[in-house]
Design goal:
two-stranded antiparallel ribbon; 2 helices; binds zinc ion; alpha+beta; globular; two-stranded antiparallel sheet; 4 strands; single chain
Length: 59
Amino acid sequence: MICERCSDNVHFVEKCEYCGKMVCVNCEKSAKRLKKVTRLVICKDCWGKLSVRKKFKSA
Ligand SMILES: [Zn+2]
Ligand SMILES: [Zn+2]
């Protein structure tokens, strides 16, 4: 699979909840569990945007 952020060929990608990109572990800044079933992932790009980061932290 190709990471949509760094274009690396990786085995595992996850969708960033905020920009919708499929990102690899290296591009993932943080992730947390929501309601036990949903995984909330934020990529490094979105983490750099303060408003998005706030949204992630308050989720
Ligand atoms: Zn990547
Ligand atoms: Zn993102």
